Amino acid sequence: MTGADLAATLQNGWLTGGMLVAAVQPLILGIVNMRRYRYAPKLADIREETQHFRVAVCVPARNERDNIEACVRSILSSQAVDVRAYVYDDESTDGTGALVTQMAAGDDRVVVVPRQVLPTDWNGKQHACFRMAEHGLSHDRALEWFLFTDADVRFEPDAVARALGFALRSKSSLVSTVPREITGSIGEMLLVPLIHFVLMGYLPIGRMRKTLDPAASAACGQFILVSREAYSASGGHDRFRASMHDGVKFPRAVRKAGLRTDLFDGTDLVSCRMYRGLAQTWRGFAKNAFEGLGSIALLVFITLYHAFGQVLPWVVVALAFVEGVWSFGATLAVAAIGCALAYRALLATRFRQSWWNLALHLPSIVMLSAVQWRSLWLHHTGRRGWKGRVAGSLAKSAT
User: Fold this and answer.
1) Are strands 223-227 and 143-149 parallel, antiparallel or unpaired?
2) Burial of 355 (0-12, 13-18, 19+ CB in 10 A)
3) Sign of the Cα pseudo-torsion (239, 194, 205, 305, in order)
């Protein structure tokens, strides 16, 4: 088959029409979801409701000396809520523990949770979070909410109170948000902004709010606010002790306990630079990308779906130009590309992302599929790991 023949074949109207449909779907659902993904109530509107609540903001810290002080300081700046900054030094070797101890000596709101040896059947982060929750449950009767976060997250002064206000007004036992994700390199831009791409384009937020179906839920492990009662009722981190994806497992556990979960837009409340550079970003996503999908069947489907709606239209248009073969099918492929870029433009505007994401869209989608398949390989070979720990087969035993 010549290049001209291939170009003509790919421009089949039914084929390119299907590409357009696959590109339109995340755009339409994304528009609908961005309307439903509402902001937390303003501080002035909920101050009287939240100021008497105590919230433990729990920070697992493994070799986070460069991050931990800024994170804790931002937590302690919280307004209209009684906060405690719980920190668990997870066998750090860079002086994180000493720095946290020093901070605790200067402010009794900083609580250093005693460290215990990591059991062989636990993931490090889940164990750290479990120990912090256990400490709060047993030592502080006034504590009513836990907020689980990461050391690289930064809080605005109204973040905790407004998140709590959203939870109270939505009658949700667990709420979560994706922080404003800061990207400082092209390597980070290739993958990190796709968190919003996938969340807005594929999660039916309307159905999430109408049902307690665990499969219709989602959360971001960088910011999970859960009530004391819901934590106990759901079994907390013990329910997914071996998992590396609390964003999937935690809301499902809460919903299985018969309690509501929800999402809100915290772009203006919290920010995070997850990784630095391509290598760290690749490793970070590879550690749990497959676990987030949960099955090979879904991985195959989403790979083909992205290839069909996000990648193949570019191939059709490129071949049409190179071979000089243009038809209505090529025009449909251009429309599919336009839908994909329009969706990325909406995401960039709403979530304060870099406009470079539009130019990087095609390689980003290819990179996403590659890292998901890499994650599958690491999962089945027992080589998933992070910060010097290899998860091995732990995730296979996760519930």
Assistant:
1) antiparallel
2) exposed
3) negative
Residue 169, domain member (yes or no): yes
Encoded tokens for 287? 């550690």
pLDDT digits (tens, 9 = 90+) for 288-334: 999 999 899 999 999 999 999 999 999 999 988 887 888 888 899 99
Yes or no: say if 245 and 291 are a contact pair by the CB < 8 Å rule.
Answer: yes
Are 122 and 96 in a shared domain? yes
Q: Are strands 389-390 and 110-112 parallel, antiparallel or unpaired?
A: unpaired
Q: 125 Cβ partners below 8 Å, 6+ apart?
A: 60, 62, 90, 221, 244, 246
Least Cα distance to 152 among 91, 222, 87, 216 occurs for 222
**Strand-strand pairing, 261-263 and 389-390:** unpaired
Which residue pairs, CB below 8 angstroms and at least 24 apart, start in 134-143?
Answer: 135/86, 135/111, 136/56, 136/58, 136/84, 136/86, 136/228, 137/228, 137/231, 137/232, 140/54, 140/56, 140/84, 142/54, 142/82, 143/54, 143/55, 143/56, 143/84, 143/228
Question: Could you give the residue ranges of the DSSP H alpha helices within 181-309?
Answer: 186-189, 194-202, 205-210, 228-234, 246-256, 277-286, 289-293, 296-306
Instruction: Determine the pLDDT at residue 8.
Output: 67
CATH of the domain at 247: 3.90.550.10
Q: Is residue 167 part of a domain?
A: yes
Hunting for tokens 């796709």 — which residue is that? 194
User: To 5 degrees, how large is the angle CA 213–CA 234–CA 379?
Assistant: 75
* Number of domains observed in the structure of the chain: 2
Kindly tell me the sign of the dihedral angle through the C-alpha atoms of 232, 153, 92, 396.
positive
Please indicate, yes or no, whether the overall pTM of this predicted structure exceeds 0.70: yes
Distance CA 119, CA 392 (A): 14
Per the listing, tokens 């998140």 go with 163
Residues 224 and 335 in one domain: no
What percent of the chain is helix, strand and coil (3-state, nearest 5)? 60, 15, 30
What's the CA gap between 265 and 86, in Å, rounded? 24
Cα–Cα distance between 23 and 20 in angstroms, integer?
Answer: 5
Is 231 found in the same domain as 326? no
Range of the structural domain that residue 94 is part of: 43-179+220-273
% of the chain with per-residue pLDDT over 90: 88
281 assigned to some structural domain: no
Exposed (0-12), middle (13-18) or buried (19+): which is 186, by Cβ within 10 Å? Answer: middle
